[in-house]
């Protein structure tokens, strides 16, 4: 208790030096929480959107299907086994058929992926109801990125050419029946969605699919040779990106924290140098050397506590405001090929805040203890004479 009282007295007596130390340390404290909150908000938003718009609760893949190898699409299709057909009929799976094709917007040729999906599917948020038959026309659904790339709008006609199962080329004009807005570029860029039965007819592949998206509650069963891919597998790339971003941002706020701790370290070194006679007096009055070390260590820890209180004073309303209105992302981020919204809403969990508090307090305590260790080796007589070596 005496150490705490002496520590507060010495800190308050330091004046401007104390204000500077706690200000820099409080800024580092708020920045650490902010960056980690943004990354956690992005992680939750990206995972949620990817699940709702693209992967569902998992996917059942044809064994030859590789989403990163467009040439695999030619052979990655097969009729559905009876067990899988039963799950489709029960609404637990929705089949999707893929093929490479070429589109000709405004006379230009552009490679695209045609994707067939049931207009009545209830699993993904893609507005497939817009693919309902329209007076004999072939409806097509595209995303905002695709619409921007080909300069198309709702109601436009678009010529597409493809090669069917037998290698025969064919072409027709599709009608853009809708343009959806999604944060998931992997269902948008370079893709045209068509009614599943219509695409199966175009490719001479009745009843076939490339992969199926599972609904919540689906239990993978033996559907050989089809292979089930769970959310952990399908979200692995996203998780890797998030972790790499955390590492990169950790370097920045780590440097900021080091600067703040260096200020505390220098303050403690200067304090020990200037208070040599005071240290000798403490020891002469009966305090052990380690008790005196404790006084200086508590002073450093007190800096961190005051910094946290100051950070909470101005950081709480600031971070609350950002969590409500979100942090706007630059427009170029929409073309990065990963799920990222126009605004990210930071998430500041209890674990994040508590972990950051412990990090700041522990770090400040350690850097205060390091210069104070020298006190344990001093001679009281030399200290009273101001001769600490």
Description of the structure:
By secondary structure, the chain is an alpha+beta fold. The chain has 2 domains: 2-52 and 237-384, no CATH class; 58-229, no CATH class. Helices cover 49% and strands 17% of the residues. It contains 11 helices and 13 strands. Strands 1, 3, 4, 5, 6, 7, 8, 10 and 11 form a 9-stranded mixed sheet that branches. Strands 2-9 form a two-stranded antiparallel ribbon. Strands 12-13 form a two-stranded antiparallel sheet. A hairpin with a 5-residue loop joins strand 6 and strand 7 (169-180). Helix 9 (289-325) runs antiparallel to helix 10 (350-372). The longest helix has 40 residues, at 16-55. The radius of gyration is 32 Å and the shape is elongated. It starts with a helix and ends in a 5-residue tail after the last helix.
Biggest beta-sheet profile? 9 strands, mixed
What is the structural class? Answer: alpha+beta
Number of helices: 11
Shape: elongated
The total domain count is: 2
DSSP summary, beta strand count: 13
Mean pLDDT, nearest integer?
82
Helix content: 40-55%
What string gives the helices and strands in order?
A: HHEEHEEEHEEEHEEEHHHHEEHH
């Amino acid at each position: 208790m005496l150490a705490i009282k002496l520590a507060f007295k010495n800190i308050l007596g330091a004046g401007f030096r104390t204000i500077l130390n706690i200000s820099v340390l409080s800024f580092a404290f708020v920045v650490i929480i902010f960056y980690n909150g943004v990354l956690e908000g992005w992680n939750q938003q990206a995972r949620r959107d990817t699940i709702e718009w693209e992967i569902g609760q998992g996917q059942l893949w044809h064994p030859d299907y590789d989403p990163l190898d467009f040439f695999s699409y030619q052979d990655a299709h097969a009729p559905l086994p009876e067990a899988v057909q039963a799950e489709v009929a029960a609404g637990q799976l929705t089949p999707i058929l893929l093929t490479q094709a070429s589109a000709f917007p405004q006379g230009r040729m552009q490679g695209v992926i045609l994707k067939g999906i049931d207009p009545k599917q209830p699993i993904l948020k893609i507005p497939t109801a817009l693919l309902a038959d329209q007076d004999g026309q072939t409806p097509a659904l595209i995303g905002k990125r695709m619409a921007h790339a080909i300069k198309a709008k709702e109601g436009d006609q678009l010529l597409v050419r493809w090669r069917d199962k037998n290698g025969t080329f064919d072409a027709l004009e599709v009608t853009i029946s809708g343009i959806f807005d999604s944060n998931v570029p992997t269902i948008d860029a370079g893709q045209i969605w068509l009614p599943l039965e219509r695409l199966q007819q175009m490719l001479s592949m009745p009843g076939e699919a490339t992969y199926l998206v599972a609904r919540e509650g689906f239990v993978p069963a033996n559907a050989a040779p089809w292979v089930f891919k769970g959310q952990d597998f399908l979200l692995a790339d996203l998780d890797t990106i998030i972790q790499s971003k955390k590492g990169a941002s950790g370097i920045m706020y780590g440097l900021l924290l080091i600067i703040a701790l260096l200020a505390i370290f220098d303050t403690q070194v200067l304090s020990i140098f200037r208070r040599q006679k005071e240290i000798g007096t403490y020891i002469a009055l009966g305090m052990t050397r380690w008790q005196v070390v404790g006084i200086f260590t508590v002073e450093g820890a007190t800096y961190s506590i005051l910094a946290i209180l100051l950070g909470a004073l101005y950081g709480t309303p600031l971070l609350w405001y950002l969590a409500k209105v979100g942090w706007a992302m630059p427009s170029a981020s929409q073309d990065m090929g990963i799920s990222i919204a126009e605004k990210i809403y930071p998430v500041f969990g209890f674990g994040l805040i508590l972990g950051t508090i412990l990090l700041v307090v522990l770090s400040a305590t350690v850097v205060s203890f390091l210069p104070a260790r020298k006190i344990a080796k001093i001679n009281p007589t030399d200290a009273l004479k101001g001769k600490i070596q």
